[in-house]
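Appendix B: complex inputs.
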Amino acid sequence: MGLISIFANFWLGKLNLQALPPNAIQWFGAILMLSVPIGLALLLTVKKKWKWLYKEWLTTQDPKKIGVMYILVALAMLLRGGADVMFMKTQQSISVGHNMGILSASHFQQIVSAHGTIMIFFVAMGLMFGLINLIVPLQIGARDVAFPFLNATSFWLFFAGMILVNASLVLGDFAATGWLAYPPLSELRYSPTVGVDYWIWSLEIAGAGSLLAAINFLVTIFKMRVKGMNFMKMPMFVWSVLGSLMLVAFAFPILTVTLGLLALDRDLGTHFFTAGGGGNMMMYVNLIWAWGHPEVYILVLPGFGVFSEVVSTFARKRLFGYTSMVWAIGAIVLLSFLVWLHHFFTMGAGSDVNAFFGIMTMIIAIPTGVKIFNWLFTMYRGKIRLESPILWFIGFVVIFTIGGMAGVLLAVPPIDFQLHNSLFLVAHFHMMIVGGVLFADFAAITYWFPKIFGFKLNEKLGRFTFWCWLIGFLTSFIPLYILGFMGATRRLNHYSASLGWQQLFIVSAIGAAIIGLGVGAQILQFVVSIIQRKNNLDTTGDPWDGRSLEWSTPSPVPFYTFARLPHVTERDAFWVAKRQKVEDKRPYEDIAIPKNSPLSMVIALGAFLLGFGIVWHIWWLAVSGLLTIIATIIIRSMDEETEYVLKASDVERLDKQYRMQTKTRETKLAVEV
Amino acid sequence: MSQINHQPVDILVSTHQPEQVTLRGYVIGFGGSIVMTITAYLFARYGMLNKPVMVALLAFLALAQFTLQLVYFLHLGREFSPRLKLLVTVFMMIIVFILVGGSIWIMNNLDGRMMGTKVMIKYMNSQDGL
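Resulting structure:
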């Protein structure tokens, strides 16, 4: 027996049969989770598409395809996070008095933590990096990013983190500590299972991917803008992304270090954040929010950029107050590093500290307000087309303003002392993140979909989706403000019937169901649009009468992106070019295109094995994962021939073919109509 | 860089060729960082210094390593410095100052507001053992 257990300990670490789900509900989650990859694998085998998938997608270095993969993963994770909501809302509406609901307390806490972690790191960040990949190179007139291999690696690291977070559904459990896992609760003594380790390592891996992607796109924006596009001629989306990525570059190392210290505490017995041994858990709270607050702006700034593009396009006016927008972004970038203490006013700092951070928090609302007014002034007297992207914008203004005012209220320390940890806070930050980030991403998907796939999304279903989301969202979260005032705390899995909260919780659950209807409509929208794509083809490359360079390419964008690099003299370069109607007679040039490489995937596989090995204390696996990463990097560095050249004559042939196709599609369509 | 027909465009960005990157620089940077880290660890683990000297020494080692990495990995101050690089460096300094200074301010404030053991015992005695 002794020998067997030593043997098993070496090969399997802490992994054993007890790691499998303990009850029916958790089995249900695990099977649901497993059925997705198994179903996909079966589908690919039946359709004989594995080779196509490998060559066209998995090994690609093309930012357009990487962007699509980011968004697909993020949308899948949105469904996962949404399923978590269904469980939480059901539990909260029925778990009153003697009824203990459907979930155990620990399982409920795991679901809440998973919901937060997944929505922030794998939905919001994924959608953001997806859009950056798709749009930033096109808007600055670049054919590619600065480091294509690094870009693919960033995506696959994000993917590895996502797999690790979802693996916790099948093997072991997830952190029951909330999405930021404060010690001492997250220390080994109070969370002895692997849940917190899953949380730490999935975020370490995905966070490393985010940091690499940020550096990559910062270099791209700094160094690869097309001739003539100086900083003050960049589209506002690029400016917003620049601000956001500056924050990633400076904030994400803090996250990496903080999680690393927590991992050392858990695995090597150090005392950074334990009460004994000279550690201080307050330092963890301080550090995690020094990353956490900039993170909020990391997510929302690209959203602001999307709305800047959408509003000026659909109001058919140039963006109001471009310079003030740029300065507002700059102010937000700096100020977002000066407010982090407002997340822990109640930790016990003195009034001078609390007052300073409270005032800074109120100040940061000013540049945000400037941006809101600039968008409204852009719409003022514009010829507005009320299509679904601008509907998302209007919904955003309503929700973001309500949530923002609640935020300024929370910035006052005495008020925060009352509302800290309550559902009021939950309602506030959901209004900011869903209103500011998710709505922007939905607007962006509708807006840029034809550019990437060559046809528009179904507008009717788009509108229906929007109204479901707006009405459902308000129904779901306004009750939470009220419940917060009544004293309901966050992560509440059971409450006494005498409190009289149940009706409001049920209203909130109904709201969530309406959002669920909206999500269903969204899925239907994709399906219907793909089936009826012939009716919605974008034959011009410029379906919305756009303003920036991405609309100068044919839709879908060819793999070489720009046959000839655009010529920029003004802001809104394409808008100006359209009106001048000058025919491009410049000669074509050779284009260097990065070759496909599976090594990005191998690095991410190594990272996954490293993370999984540490989570379960399977040290041979962790070491082999680490060695895989190092070896792959060395092999890749030795490879001198990483790109091939597309000859100028080929570019010319392809470009003409492409334009011809577009024309035939156009005439064919005219005949059909 | 995969682009073959791209030139930097801004007055903010240097059009100078970057200096030749040498293996020697990276080895010095890497080796130096490791030596300083190990020194810091050894002093913290086995050093017989008293606390203020120790804190000063560790802070010095951290700053020295920070500078070393800036010079040898980021090549700061070793080539013609365009405005953009200066801006980014200044921004970095500001952020580091805010985060380090802010953390010290916050943690010190919290520490000052918590009772030390002696104060607590005195308080508990005066309260008749709580």
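Chain A has 20 helices and two strands.
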